[in-house]
Task: structure prediction
Amino acid sequence: AEDGYDLWLRYAPADQARAADISAHARAIASRTNSPTLRAASQELQRAIMRMTGTAPALAETPTAGALWLATPDTAPALPVSLKALGTEGYAIRSIDQGGQPVTLIAANSDIGVLHGVFHWLRLAQTGAALDRLDIRSAPRIGLRLLNHWDNLNGTVERGYAGMSIWDWWRLPDYKGPRYTDYARANASIGINGTVLNNVNAKADSLTAPYIAKAAALADIFRPYGIRVYLSVKWTAPMELDGLETADPLDPQVAAWWKAKADDIYRAIPDFGGFLVKANSEGQPGPQDYDRTHADGANMLAAAVKPHGGIVMWRAFVYAHDNPDDRAKQAFADFKPLDGQFADNVLVQVKNGAIDFQPREPFHPLFGAMPKTPLMMEFQITKEYLGQSTHLTYLGPLFEETLDADTYAKGKGSTVAKVVDGSLDGHRLTGIAGVANIGVDRDWSGSIFNQADWYAFGRLAWDPDLTAESIAREWAAMTFSPDPRLVQPVVVMMMGSREAAVDYMTPLGLAHVMGTGHHYGPAPWVSDLARPEWNPVYYHKADARGIGFDRTRSGSNAIAQYAPALARRLADPATTPESELLWFHHLPWDYRLKSGETLWNGLVHRYDRGVAYVADMQRTWNSLRPLVDPERFAQTQAFLAIQHREAQWWRDASIAYFQSINHLPLPAGAAPPA
Ligand code: GCU
Result:
């Protein structure tokens, strides 16, 4: 059944001509070694080619006519292709002539590189691309490409909308179900090379011996796929687990405890990646509780993993105390002064925006502001604020927009991508993380289309210059079929879908107006929560005269956290991108937008446009019924109906609430409430 379990690795039967073409380029798989990684690569090829063509290629030692030749310098010293600059994970794919016979060489410096090359070739095979005259070289631009699971040890997933955790902690380490291998295959296929197993809101228990053994069992499964395991840690673990009196990072006993703990972990998991830390944020303990800085805390942990080659990812998502003024400023205020103080195996992990994974946020002002510190990007793949499991809101454009944003840190062209890939400031340690949207649902991600967000994250982590559109195209071809009558309209649907959600939820730079706690659905009216920065009214600041958060000098002056060239432009509504207008400015309801309409009319118009886009997606999808299997067709059709109803709900509730404040009529031509 097409229940989505196979993700983009469906390897659907190709039509006759295409099957013949694939077979002609994969008559045999030639490989000298039988390492676990190359065995996985060969098995993947055999399974895929069998499914696409009906015939599995034979395994051979030497490259015969029409073979796929998997090679590293270890197994084939005189390779007819240069492997320079491909590093340990990159690969080359080349159509060569081997003694008069056509052969496709997939070569790399390591077995893992070969595996990545195999998945690239399979992508070509699945998407209908040419398989001859290949001359491809590819290496990842970012070193650490990680999923962050917000999975709890009790099996629930924080902000997870695809069922319970896929980690079956009860039955690990003894029972290792096949899903773990499929998870590793899917991640390796898009170049993900690490996974943080547990929630950033960590429990100390994850560092006890039984859980280390469970993590080690997973690490053993993932290792052949080039995926390392990492753990989130709770700052007070030494106190909770072993009764230490303090968790002060400068206390020698505390440092010794972490060193011993790291030694234990590395005994069980020799290639353990390192620690992820959420400290002094949302009630989590941290070094500031002992009047120490985030750098003091990070460096103490870094010293514990350093002898083993491990790293520490220290999160900059902090808002520990009340921020009556502007919560968006705290991370910068806490971290910018620490630039240059972090050990060389620490990365500071920064969310894409300064608040919290909103449908649209300006890029986080820390990007470009800490040149001496490797900054790791944190995106959210799970759609906490974007319709969760049901809304079709493809996140590729959100990721792309952030990576392409210009920080102006070193003049024009200092993009966020260049900060993250290390090229702007010359960092060799680089990373990007995506908060996973994975659970035990058959389709892994809560919907077929949510799988595209996992896929897009991995592809952009490998190469941040890829476009969201080209990624959508690949994904649609592999997930459904390479038939252009399907791919074209599906890509169009996907590409506008995130902007549509911005339109019906938070147009023109509004933010954080979602329902309290669950963050699903509209609640711009909420004003009575304990902390100022939890209340939606704190963010939109609507009053009789206008709406929006003044972050210029007359307000919180958060714009001063950006590079001067950018800050100057953001100081003036006329030179602020309209998509971020109300993020930076409080403006009168009759402020004129570029279109000539008033701010109020423009808001209403955008709410309407968002709802209409969803209706368009419904029409497009209905027209694709003949080209999609019934099961996946029906799921998407039903989810689009939910989305349409909820887009309408967002629109009506938002407009009604703002009208109760500004008493303005609906503009001529606007739809009445549903
Ligand atoms: C958001 C989210 C929390 C999460 C936090 C984090 O606030 O709602 O569930 O713990 O981000 O990133 O740490």
About this structure: The two ends are 37 Å apart (CA to CA). DSSP finds 19 helices and 16 strands in the chain. Residues 144-479 form a domain with the TIM Barrel fold (CATH 3.20.20.80). Residues 158-159, 200-201, 278, 317, 356, 384 surround alpha-D-glucopyranuronic acid (CB under 6 Å).
